[in-house]
Predict the structure.
Amino acid sequence: MDNIITTEKLTKKYKDVLAVSEISLNVRKGEIYGFLGLNGAGKTTTIRMLLGMVNPTKGKAFINGKQVHSGSADLWKEIGYLVEIPYSYPDLTVRENLEIIRQLRLMNDNNVVATIMDKLRLTQYSNRKAKNLSLGNAQRLGLAKALIHNPKILILDEPANGLDPAGIYEIRELLIDLAKNKGVTIFISSHILGEISRFSTRIGIIHDGKLIQEINTLQLEQLCQKRLKINTRNNNLAKSVLHQSGIIAKDTADNMIEIENEAIINNPESIATILVNNQVPPSLLNVVEEDLESYFLRTIGVKGK
Amino acid sequence: MKNISIALWTEYLKIRKSKIFFTTLIIFTIIPMMIGLMMFVSKNPDIASKLGLIGTKSKMFGENDWKGYLGLMSQLIASIGLLGFGFVTAWVFGREHSDRTMKDILALPVGRPSIVFAKFIIVFLWCLILTVVTFSVGIIVGQVIAIPGWSLALFSDFSKSFFITYFLTLFLCSPVAYLAGFSRGIIAPLGFVLLTMIFAQFIGLVGLGPFFPWAIPGLYSVAKDEPGFQLHLSSYIILASTFVFGYWATLRWWQHADHH
């Protein structure tokens, strides 16, 4: 069985608010599935339904082929999770907070607490009370709780929150290592496409509770729009010249013109030839690629073309 | 069973490291000391007259002997116990919401029913400790201020009544636990406890106390032969049913509610 996480038309409705609408997705073994959406898009509600914390109004969620429900105690042995901002018992130390999770995960090995603290660079804070931790270290403690039992499945909700760039890099490398070398299946939510695309194998975009697109990260670059930006001494004349050659150019906000035709973008020298031959030589010809955030915003309809 | 003992250990660790536990210990130590002080004042009218208000209030003992003193102690565990035990329950169950740690304990192999059961056990033990402290301090203070009329038979009757009142008061914890979950915090269940205390007074006054769960421990601790104060078998059934219903509602909430 290849599919580790499966949802079938998973739906959650709160009175008049449709938080999650008929989400069907599959996450395969060893895959890092990036679950992308703006705040309030339905990411956390979906994750809570995957963890049996919220009951679906309609649809089902399966993990390892077993239907998820609140009493899936055996299922939770294989799952590590972090939901939203991690909080810990404020009067307990880092070590004690992890000790509680070790016990509740029915683990007999006493060394796991020291091991996970070492892995997440928390050893120096082991005797510090959770209430005195920085935001970044509180996030590390949350991740330590999720990873303490070397789970086969990780469900992480915005795990990079509060981490500095070095911490984000460190966690990213850790997750890549877990997926690539240990076959861990990772379902990770984020609202930053640029970040999640760096290590996800597949990305699902959720907006207004609906899964609007699923893409392989390798395809992502191809989906980002490219444009050929042109500047000349007389852009109106240039536009007219190009129009006579059957090429449509549009004005841009920065007083240049641009072409979206893919064939032309892949062959910009043809434009240079046309313009030079018509006495409006280009002073700038630049192929501009849409960045990932623009692609994401365009996909969810927040930013137009 | 193993899961319950593990969950119990974690609850113990959470309590041992909290300031609340020691705060309740101090409060439940001070209260019998205050009653002892009032008895001391009552026994010594010359001091009472100099103190005015406290001198008047100290007449609540009736006779200034062990019988009056222990009678008040029994009522104390019923009234202060209702509030104190309610607070303990609200804290044990509501802290997971106020500390926002609830989500961390919902999807674990130990299982939610074990955690709920362990929380109830820890509430019972915590309240037992508070009861023993109040009982011991009360007896020691009584001996120190040399209250007259001590007898082993009186002590035996009082001990039995005191701990049965503790036990009956515990039965009222489960609705508080449910409310801590339902309201996702500590404030609402505490408000509920205060409300039930007020209702218990009014309902007791109109003679329906034996049928109102929150009045039953109080009635048990006072004179039992007066009309409207007599507990029936149905009183105990009502009390037990309240606990069972509260436990069932708490468990059901933990297992089936949407946890945000």
Observations:
- The CA atoms of residues 122 and 254 of chain A lie 49 Å apart.
- The first helix of chain A runs from residue 43 to 50.
- The mean pLDDT of chain A is 90.
